[in-house]
Design a protein that fits this description.
Elements: H1 5-16, H2 22-36, H3 38-41, H4 45-61, H5 65-99
Helix pairs in contact: 1-2, 2-4, 4-5
Amino acid sequence: MFAFVPVLLLQIAMIVFDSRWIFTAQGIVIAAALWSVRKDYGLSPILLLGCPLLGFYTTTLLASNLDRYAWSTVGLGILFMLDGTIALIRSVVRKSAARVPQT
């Protein structure tokens, strides 16, 4: 629960400060917060590595702040969707392997 307080503060900082590098900081802070709770929620490494890379991408390759906000939001949504898909596949494989009778 407390791991997401820095993430919320950084989201507010994104609105208040007009800096390109706030998106890289956002990716690093989100990855650090997710790293601290990774054992509890079983997060995949793709999510942990994707957040800083997404932040760096939005900082370096996009020109306007509106584009950065939009792509940052879309990218995080895609990363979380990918993490959920990986978790679903792991669960299905684990449960189907447990049901196979040993002969």
